[in-house]
Design goal:
- The protein is of the alpha/beta class.
- The protein has 2 domains: 306 residues, 3-Layer(aba) Sandwich (UDP-N-acetylmuramoyl-L-alanine:D-glutamate ligase), CATH 3.40.1190.20; 152 residues, 3-Layer(aba) Sandwich (Rossmann fold), CATH 3.40.50.
- Helices cover 36% and strands 25% of the residues.
- Helix 7 packs antiparallel against helix 8 and helix 8 packs across helix 9.
Length: 475
Amino acid sequence: MTIRIPDFSAARVLVAGDVMLDRYWHGGASRISPEAPVPVVRVEQSDDRPGGAANVAVNVAALGASAAVIGAVGDDPAAAVLAERLRQRGVEAQLEPVVGGHTVTKLRVISRHQQLIRLDFEDGFPNLLRGRLLSRFRPALERADVVVLSDYGKGALAEVGALADAAREAGRPVIVDPKGRDFERYRGVTLITPNLAELELVVGPCATVADIESKGEALRRELNLEALLVTRGEAGMTLIQAHEVLHLPTVAREVYDVTGAGDTVVSTLAASLAAGLALPAATRLANLAAGIVVGKLGTASVSVPELRRALYEREEHDRGVVDEDSLLLRLQEARGRGERLVMTNGCFDIIHAGHVTYLEQARRLGDRLIVAVNDDASVRRLKGSERPVNSVEQRMHVLAGLAAVDWVLPFAEDTPERLICRALPDVLVKGGDYRPEQVAGGECVTRNGGEVVILGYVPGQSTSNIVARIRAGGD
C-alpha cells in the first residue's frame, strides 16, 4: 500500500495571514565593485511571486483545490502586482488595503542560482487592522472546509484568537503556522506546525527525539490542541497526537532552497484534510511535497503530477542498506501505509540459489522484507576464524540487489533478538528445522501479535558445502 493522493477538486481551503510579494532579480556577477568588496550583479531577469500566506494559497491551488486568501497590503504598486499574481494562479484574493502602509516585499538578488542578498521592505500592520480582516473572514468561512492561519509576525494576525474562534464556531478545522514565543495565542486550534527552532523557543532545548516527544506532548495538552506537527529539516517530521506519535524521515533527494517549504507543508496538509484524508495520511503527503519543493529555487509550489512521480521514485528507490535508526523510521512509515512487514536474518556469506529461493518465499509472506545480517565478528564466532569469506559490506550489497529484499542492515550480537524486538515485524521467518519457540526474537514478535514462520532449506544448497568444494578443488 502506498501514500494515497486524494481528489483535490472538491476541497476548499481558506488562508488568512501575512501576505507578501517575493521578488527575484537574476543576473551574472563577473566582477567586484570598485566601491566596496561586493559583487556587481547585472540584472537580466526579474520574477514576482506571492509569498507568505499568499504562497500557502498558491500551493493549495496548485494541487487543484479551491483556494482563497485574506490578508493586508499597502496602497502601493506592489499590492497590485501581488493581486494580479494571485489571480493568475487561480486564487481568490481578498486583500485589505491599508492607507499609508507598504506591502511586505522581500527582494532576493540571485546569480548563478545562488542568493547573494535579501532586502526586506516592510512596516508591518500593527494595530491598523482591528476588526477589518475578521469582517472579511466570517462570511468566507461558509465556502471553506479547512482554515489555515499563516503567521509571519507582520501584524495581520493580531486578532488570531478571534479568527480561530470564528472558525471553530463554524465547525472548521484550523491549522496554524506559528510565529514567536507566544503560542498561547493559538490555544484550542486543531493543529500547529512549528519547526524545531520555533518549538524550542517555547519549550526549551530538544536535544533528542524523546525530548521532542515529551515536550511536544506537554505543549499539545497545555494548549488543548488536537495535534502538533514539528518539522525538523533534514531529520524529517514528528506528528504528535494524543496517545500517538508518528516520525517521518525526510524524502528530499537534494536540498536546493528551503524558501517556502513550510508553506508547502501547511498547504498540502490543509488541502489533504479538506479532501478527506486523515491527519497521519495528510502528514505523509505533506512530507513528500516538502521533499519536492526544497529541490526548487525560490518560493515554489508542488503539483499532483509531481507528487505522483515522487511516489513512484520513492517506491522504486526506498530500498537498500540502512542503519538501525533509519530502518525503524521506515518501518513506522510502512505500518502507517498498512504494509505487512517480514523479517529474517542470517550470515549470507556466499549467496546461492538456495538463499534466493528462501528470500523470495519470505517476501511473498508480506509487503516488505527486512534482512538482518551478522557482522564479520559474529560470523567468526559462529562459523570459525576462516569465515566469513565475504565482508559484511559485500554481503549486504549483494542482498540489497535482490528483487525480493527491501532493507538490509547489520547486527553485531550472536543473535538478532534485540534488533527483532525493536523492529517487531508482522512475520519473523527462519529457515531450517527450528520450532517457532526456538527462534531468536520470536517471543517478542508473537507477544506483539505477529507470527513466526519456518521455511525449509533448498536441498543441496549450502554455503559450507560450496566452501568445502572450493577447498577440495571440486566443481
